[in-house]
Design goal:
Blueprint (H helix, E strand, L loop, with lengths): L5 H6 L5 E3 L4 E3 L3 H16 L5 H16 L3
Antiparallel strand pairs: 1-2
C-alpha cells in the first residue's frame, strides 16, 4: 500500500472515505479499506471514535472489500 499524497487524497471523492464528512479513513483500495477497519478499531479502543463511527467505517470498508477488483 502506497502512501497517499495530499494531492491524491484531495482528488478522491467523499465516497472513498470511511467517514466522508471528515474525509478520514480512505477506503479507495482493498488494502486501505482493510487498514481503515484496523485503525478504526484501535482508535475506538483508545476512546477517539464512537462506536457509531467505528461501525460506519467498518460497513463502508466491508462494502469496498466485497467489490471485485
Amino acid at each position: 500500500m502506497s502512501h497517499l499524497t495530499q494531492e491524491e487524497r484531495d482528488s478522491l471523492p467523499d465516497s472513498a472515505f470511511g467517514l466522508p464528512e471528515k474525509r478520514a479513513y480512505p477506503i479507495d483500495t482493498r488494502a486501505r479499506a482493510s487498514n481503515a477497519k484496523a485503525r478504526a478499531t484501535q482508535e475506538y479502543e483508545r476512546g477517539l471514535l464512537t462506536a457509531e463511527e467505528r461501525d460506519r467505517i467498518d460497513k463502508a470498508a466491508d462494502r469496498r472489500l466485497a467489490q471485485d477488483d
